[in-house]
Automatic annotation (TrEMBL):
InterPro entries: Leu-rich_rpt, Leu-rich_rpt_typical-subtyp, LRR_dom_sf, LRR_N_plant-typ, LRRC69/RLP
Name used for this protein in its record: Leucine-rich repeat-containing N-terminal plant-type domain-containing protein
PANTHER family attached to this UniProt entry: LEUCINE-RICH REPEAT SERINE/THREONINE-PROTEIN KINASE 1 (PTHR48057), OS02G0609900 PROTEIN (PTHR48057:SF29)
Sequence intervals crossing the membrane: 658-681
One matching Pfam family: LRR_8
Organism, scientific name: Rehmannia glutinosa
Matches recorded under SUPFAM superfamilies: L domain-like
Record keywords: Leucine-rich repeat, Membrane, Repeat, Signal, Transmembrane, Transmembrane helix
Keyword Repeat: yes
Amino acid sequence: MLTLCFCFFLFVVLLSSLQENVLSCNQIDHDSLISFHQHISNSLPLNWSSSTDCCHWEGISCTTFNNRVTHLWLPEKGLSGTIDHPFLANLSFLSHINLSHNHISGPFPVTLFHSLIHLKILDLSSNRFNGSLDSSFFNRASNLISFNVSNNSLTGPVPLSICSGSAFLEILDLSMNKFIGNINIGGCSNLKVFRAGFNSLSGWLPYDLYRLRALEEISLPNNRFSGPINDSIVLLSNLTVLELHVNELSGELPLDIGLLSNLEQLQLHTNSLNGTLPPSLMNCSKLKTLLIRNNRFGGEISNLDFSKLQLLEAVDFGNNTFVGKISNSLCLCRSLTAVRLAYNRLVGEIPPCMASLRSLAHFSVSDNYLSNVSQALNILRHCENIAVLFMSRCFNDETMPNDDDLSRLGNGFQNLQILTLGGCQLKGQIPSWIAKLRKLKVLNLSYNKIYGPIPAWLGDMPRLFVLNLTQNYLSGNLPRELGRLPALNSDNTSSDLSSLALPFLFDAQQYNRLFNLPRGLKVGYNKLSGNIPEEIGRLKLLHVLDLNNNEFNGSIPRNLSRLVNLERLDMSGNDLSGEIPESLTGLHFLSSFSVANNDLQGEIPRGGQFDTFPAASFEGNPKLCGYVIKRRCDHVVVGTQEEMVPESDEEEEPESSWYNVPFGLGYFVGLFLAVIITLLFNGSWRSVRADSTNYLETRSV
Ligand SMILES: *[C@@H]1O[C@H](CO)[C@@H](O)[C@H](O)[C@H]1NC(C)=O
Ligand SMILES: *[C@@H]1O[C@H](CO)[C@@H](O)[C@H](O)[C@H]1NC(C)=O
Ligand SMILES: *[C@@H]1O[C@H](CO)[C@@H](O)[C@H](O)[C@H]1NC(C)=O
Ligand SMILES: *[C@@H]1O[C@H](CO)[C@@H](O)[C@H](O)[C@H]1NC(C)=O
Ligand SMILES: *[C@@H]1O[C@H](CO)[C@@H](O)[C@H](O)[C@H]1NC(C)=O
Ligand SMILES: *[C@@H]1O[C@H](CO)[C@@H](O)[C@H](O)[C@H]1NC(C)=O
Ligand SMILES: *[C@@H]1O[C@H](CO)[C@@H](O)[C@H](O)[C@H]1NC(C)=O
Ligand SMILES: *[C@@H]1O[C@H](CO)[C@@H](O)[C@H](O)[C@H]1NC(C)=O
Ligand SMILES: *[C@@H]1O[C@H](CO)[C@@H](O)[C@H](O)[C@H]1NC(C)=O
Ligand SMILES: *[C@@H]1O[C@H](CO)[C@@H](O)[C@H](O)[C@H]1NC(C)=O
Ligand SMILES: *[C@@H]1O[C@H](CO)[C@@H](O)[C@H](O)[C@H]1NC(C)=O
Ligand SMILES: *[C@@H]1O[C@H](CO)[C@@H](O)[C@H](O)[C@H]1NC(C)=O
């Protein structure tokens, strides 16, 4: 029994010492890592305790045969500081380094890697490295396979001979830095993924590029590359991604581009490419994304046969000079979710077969010469996923599709969130089928010939937060029911259009303009009359309120001051009378304000944003007075002389205003008494002024 126990004890001791030997990490590696740790700080603590085996530390792996550290894998650990110290140079078996998504700064750590002939994978992306890349690094890293320094602040030219030392390189990602000059990737014959977008690279696309037959992805967007796309690109038969957008490329597409039979993504938008699209492009049957907007491509669009592009999801031909009719073959691309043909010279009607595009969510044909808007809506209502429909300046001088035209709307457009039909000179009334679009957030019917009333039911549209009816022939009152609009009253969430924004369809600026639309009610340039309803004051989420150039009369509702988010308020060109409510000075975000050309009177309020509005905001109201328009109000009422501008300026005012009318002494005494008395009993300057101006007005009439 004793022997057995003793044997067991021995066995345990042996085992633990064995384990210690097998797993205890190399002392040099251990010390190097400890030094490394001391020179970076990390917000997420690492369990790197000296008393434990470093091969068991977080982010560390070792070889099994000699316990040397191979992996330093610490992405997203909140590391900061610099690593340009020699501590890692002794980790001579290191092959995999991932320090991505940290906050490491300073120069690219060339010295670290002097002995790193084993290095295969280096990911330093999404840090704050600056300075330039040194070619000596690539000369030594002879086994490098993957190199990612994207999303840093590296500068200068890219080293001349990246692959002269690193011939096995397969992945090279230099994107989102500040590299300049051209780029030499000759000799990178194993390169599969090449990304260098969002830099300031220039010159023609390097000839070497066309020789690297292993390339699967070329992504060089947002640089300043110029010149043509060389015909030899068609030799890169493994290419699946070609992104050259936002550069200065010119010339035509290679005629045989169809040889790129593996191509899934072709993004060439925002260049100066021209000519017709080679028919062979339509042989790239794996294409999912085809973005060529903002170029000078042209030609008959109906010549393009889309029938082989069964996988196509997004096509953007916007802002080119394509002519002709939309091809029926487009309907065969059953996976289409986004189609943009805007800003071309297309004619004819929307092909009826488009009704079968069940995935279509975004359709834009603005700025073309299409016809038959009723037909278009009747077809597109079958696309049950359609959420965005841009059709402004597309049809001309037709009739606004009415309820009869869309009588079978049924469940159509139940996902529609944006509908624009502006600038089409459409005649007719606002049709009630719009009331059925329960998810509609943005409705733009501006610049048409729509007449009749603004229907009260618009106020019950649950999500609507942009209503643009600018420049039509609308008449009658502004319905007080609009004050109910839920998305402008309280529902902050519904005004989010971000889910609709397919970023690849837009340049940043355009994207912001379209999908951060300010919540607005725009009914300017119509024939609306009556009072501005008090209820509008409930729309406290409103940012823009345009009531200008109508026939509104009565006074400005005081409670517009409850529109606390308002940035623009335009009431110019109406028949409004009475005073500008002092309460409007409480609108702290108001940066644009106009009541020009009305019949307002009294003193222009001062304080708040009102101190920033120019005279033009108030011009054309002969009975208004105040500092900003250089027209004096009554002395007693307004306060000290010094605040007012000199007489000489005022004399230039032609329609010499009411305060110049010579009043008798009795009036002044009377007014003075009235002021003093009101002051005593009311204690408020505001009421003093209001009362005295009323008094003045009755006297002067
Ligand atoms: C350190 O943490 C990692 C996981 O993050 C764990 O796998 C490892 O066992 C830990 N090592 C020590 C010595 O505690
Ligand atoms: C690297 O290791 C050697 C011993 O092998 C040591 O003398 C030297 O100081 C180490 N360098 C660093 C930077 O840790
Ligand atoms: C580095 O780590 C990040 C985060 O885990 C990961 O997304 C990335 O793929 C890794 N890099 C490499 C080259 O594997
Ligand atoms: C490089 O790293 C970034 C993250 O920082 C990642 O988005 C990108 O896909 C990586 N590049 C490659 C080629 O894997
Ligand atoms: C770039 O890095 C920053 C911070 O380092 C990070 O927030 C951002 O997501 C990164 N961008 C990409 C595209 O990886
Ligand atoms: C890198 O950034 C640091 C500050 O983080 C700055 O002091 C240094 O001059 C920069 N180096 C270069 C080459 O831009
Ligand atoms: C192209 O891809 C195929 C399949 O992945 C591969 O066998 C072939 O070697 C690649 N061609 C080149 C030139 O790398
Ligand atoms: C295309 O590239 C080849 C080299 O690959 C070159 O000889 C030829 O001149 C280039 N063609 C044009 C039009 O630039
Ligand atoms: C395309 O542009 C080039 C200049 O970049 C010009 O020489 C050529 O004639 C243009 N082709 C067409 C079809 O307009
Ligand atoms: C498209 O491919 C087919 C066969 O794959 C070929 O016969 C045809 O000529 C190609 N069309 C064009 C325009 O290159
Ligand atoms: C059309 O493309 C040109 C050239 O890229 C650009 O300058 C222009 O702003 C674009 N127009 C629109 C409306 O996007
Ligand atoms: C709405 O109307 C304004 C005129 O005030 C016009 O400039 C604007 O482009 C229209 N469209 C949208 C979506 O606001």
